């Protein structure tokens, strides 16, 4: 009897241990899969202290992060409005603050450019882009879009320029309620915007034709060195902002764009290709001076410094900003 009882007891114990082992393996597998899913969907990175840091457009969301509070702000080479404008930043874009000096902040922008911005144009309250629950990301694709206080119209909260991005927490049909800097909210409605769902997904890649069509929206815009909006734009800025909202990130500088994509001969140029112009430099020798976007294979749109505005140029005809000498393809 004791031997029979002992065998039954060991049998039950074996089954219990087996069940515990299987359950442990199962839980371990689920835990590993859950962790993998989180890491795949997040843009977070681990810092030196083992803490996860969220990144938005390459800017870490830490104590040095800030967002732009105005429609557009200039970034200068020095903390002086008389110094060279090196780039511009748009409403709600993140920047990384490197240092502060007497009403100025030295920042790194999402394009990688470093320069000085007036401190009053940024805030360290980054809750409009990080730390809250967002359902969509809304990207402005028209030259300018008004953010209103109500779904229909109401008071103007901010005028947002092409490339500005906002995070929505509510929507009504084609109207989206978004967070704004300064702990405010507003509404974007109708055409001229795209919805990114889920909000941390990249902007979808479109095609070469859409890229060229985007650039054409700036036709007639005044030339502004290192500008990025309809208030003024330069040639690399036109390429940068038009490519960005069509899902392609290119360098913001002429030198960087000259190295992006694949080089093609001029006779193979088609819609959406980058066309580079050459003109005599300060030393009298020809150098790459401008970039345009092919709109039909024989014409291109560009923001000419000497022309003075965004204009259409002919591929095989010289214009005040130079002559087309090479091309590169950034869309397949």
Number of helices: 4
| The CATH fourth-level homologous superfamily of the largest domain | endopeptidase domain like (from Nostoc punctiforme)
Shape: globular
Structural class: alpha+beta
Q: Rounded to an integer, what's the Rg over CA atoms? A: 26 Å
Strand content: 35-45%
CATH names the topology of the largest domain as: endopeptidase fold (from Nostoc punctiforme)
The CATH architecture designation of the largest domain is Alpha-Beta Complex
Overall pLDDT: 88
Strand arrangement within the widest β-sheet reads 21-26-22-23-24-25
The portion of residues assigned to helices is 10-25%
Reported for the largest beta sheet, the result is: 6 strands, antiparallel
Description:
Helices cover 19% and strands 37% of the residues. The protein has helices at residues 2-41, 208-216, 235-244, 254-257; strands spanning 45-46, 52-53, 55-56, 59-60, 65-68, 72-76, 85-90, 94-101, 104-108, 114-118, 122-123, 136-140, 144-148, 156-161, 165-172, 175-180, 184-189, 193-196, 228-229, 232-233, 262-264, 274-280, 286-294, 299-303, 310-314, 323-329. Helix 2 crosses helix 3 (235-244). It has 3 domains: 55-123, SH3 type barrels, CATH 2.30.30.40; 136-196, SH3 Domains (SH3 type barrels, Roll), CATH 2.30.30; 208-329, Alpha-Beta Complex (endopeptidase fold (from Nostoc punctiforme)), CATH 3.90.1720.10.
Short recap of the structure:
The protein has 332 residues and is an alpha+beta fold. The chain has helices spanning 2-41, 208-216, 235-244, 254-257, and strands at residues 45-46, 52-53, 55-56, 59-60, 65-68, 72-76, 85-90, 94-101, 104-108, 114-118, 122-123, 136-140, 144-148, 156-161, 165-172, 175-180, 184-189, 193-196, 228-229, 232-233, 262-264, 274-280, 286-294, 299-303, 310-314, 323-329. It has three domains: 55-123, SH3 Domains (SH3 type barrels), CATH 2.30.30; 136-196, SH3 Domains (SH3 type barrels, Roll), CATH 2.30.30.40; 208-329, endopeptidase domain like (from Nostoc punctiforme) (endopeptidase fold (from Nostoc punctiforme)).
């Amino acid at each position: 009897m004791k031997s029979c009882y002992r065998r039954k007891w060991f049998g039950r114990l074996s089954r219990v241990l087996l069940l515990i082992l299987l359950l442990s393996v199962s839980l371990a597998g689920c835990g590993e899969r859950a962790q993998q899913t989180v890491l795949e969907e997040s843009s977070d990175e681990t810092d030196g202290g083992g803490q996860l840091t969220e990144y938005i457009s390459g800017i870490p969301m830490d104590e040095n992060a800030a967002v732009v509070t105005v429609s557009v702000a200039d970034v200068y080479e020095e903390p002086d409005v008389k110094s060279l404008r090196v780039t511009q930043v748009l409403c709600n874009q993140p920047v990384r603050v490197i240092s502060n000096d007497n009403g100025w902040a030295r920042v790194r922008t999402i394009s990688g450019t470093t320069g000085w911005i007036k401190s009053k144009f940024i805030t360290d309250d980054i809750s409009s882009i990080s730390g809250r629950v967002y359902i969509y990301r809304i990207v402005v694709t028209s030259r300018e879009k008004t953010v209103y206080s109500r779904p229909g119209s109401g008071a103007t909260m901010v005028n947002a320029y092409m490339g500005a991005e906002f995070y929505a927490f509510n929507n009504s049909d084609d109207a989206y309620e978004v967070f704004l800097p300064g702990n405010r909210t507003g509404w974007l409605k109708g055409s001229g915007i795209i919805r990114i769902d889920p909000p941390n997904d990249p902007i979808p890649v479109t095609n070469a034709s859409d890229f060229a069509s985007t650039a054409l929206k700036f036709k007639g815009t005044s030339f502004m060195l290192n500008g990025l909006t309809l208030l003024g734009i330069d040639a690399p800025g036109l390429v940068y902002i038009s490519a960005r909202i069509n899902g392609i990130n290119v360098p913001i500088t002429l030198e960087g764009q000259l190295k992006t994509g694949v080089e093609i001969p001029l006779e193979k140029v088609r819609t959406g290709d980058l066309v580079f112009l050459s003109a005599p430099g300060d030393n009298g020798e020809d150098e790459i001076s401008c970039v345009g976007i092919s709109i039909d294979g024989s014409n291109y749109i560009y923001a000419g410094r000497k022309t003075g505005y965004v204009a259409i140029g002919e591929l095989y005809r010289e214009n005040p900003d130079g002559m087309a000498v090479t091309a590169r393809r950034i869309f397949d």
